[in-house]
Specification:
The chain is an alpha/beta fold. It has helices at residues 2-13, 16-30, 58-69, 88-96, 125-133, 163-186, 197-201; strands at residues 47-52, 73-77, 118-122, 141-143. The radius of gyration is 16 Å and the shape is globular.
Length: 207
């Protein structure tokens, strides 16, 4: 029984730390601290920038989904090496969903040239804080997991974790990117100008 619970935790949350961070994030949201990051606040979105730590798993996959549906987007890492490839596990997990990360190359956030109309879609609350510390306006930051189905405001890093959690994480990201794309299209945002609505509304492929 204990072994089964442990497997379930790993599949749903990656690690005990992932579960704890999710609970902390939920508590912060319940206190109203994160609500601004769960709705669009920019009047015009020209580009979505997906942000995670290394830009080799989560944000790399989010960018692949965005490109598949026709959403104008880029991705960066807060602490990464320029040109680093997507992790082998991420490549395999993406392939299970019909996407390829084979040509992905990581981009450090310091190399990103900000543009008016950039919307920064982060995976974790601490990523939002890191962007604020860099002087980015709060209204340009959103927690991507708020658009996931089901919503999960903390999208834990699957790096070095097992395939089951990669599938959980990528499934949430896939659904979130599609939902965000549809919302941007409905609002007439230029980032979604080339969007394929049938593709964006299609249910994420099972792993």
């Amino acid at each position: 029984m204990i072994a089964g619970l442990a497997r379930g935790l790993r599949a749903r949350h990656g690690t005990h730390r992932g579960w704890v961070r999710l609970q902390i994030t939920r508590a912060a949201h319940g206190l109203g601290l994160l609500r601004p990051y769960t709705r669009l606040r920019l009047a015009r979105v020209d580009r979505v920038v997906f942000v995670c730590l290394g830009n080799i798993n989560r944000s790399a996959f989010a960018l692949a989904v965005a490109r598949q549906v026709g959403l104008r987007a880029d991705s960066v890492g807060l602490a990464t090496t320029a040109g680093a490839p997507a992790s082998p596990a991420a490549c395999v997990a993406a392939q299970r969903r019909g996407l390829s990360l084979r040509t992905h190359q990581a981009t450090p956030i310091a190399e990103l040239i900000p543009r008016p109309g950039d919307l920064y879609a982060v995976m974790e609350w601490r990523h939002a804080n890191a962007l604020l510390a860099r002087g980015l306006p709060a209204q340009s930051i959103m927690l991507l997991g708020g658009w996931a189905r089901p919503a999960r405001l903390h999208l834990h890093d699957p790096h070095t974790l097992d395939a089951a959690f990669f599938d959980t994480c990528f499934g949430l990201i896939d659904s979130a990117v599609r939902a965000l794309a549809v919302e941007l299209a409905a609002g007439g945002h230029p980032a979604a100008g080339a969007l394929s609505l049938p593709e964006a509304r299609r249910a994420p492929a099972p792993a």
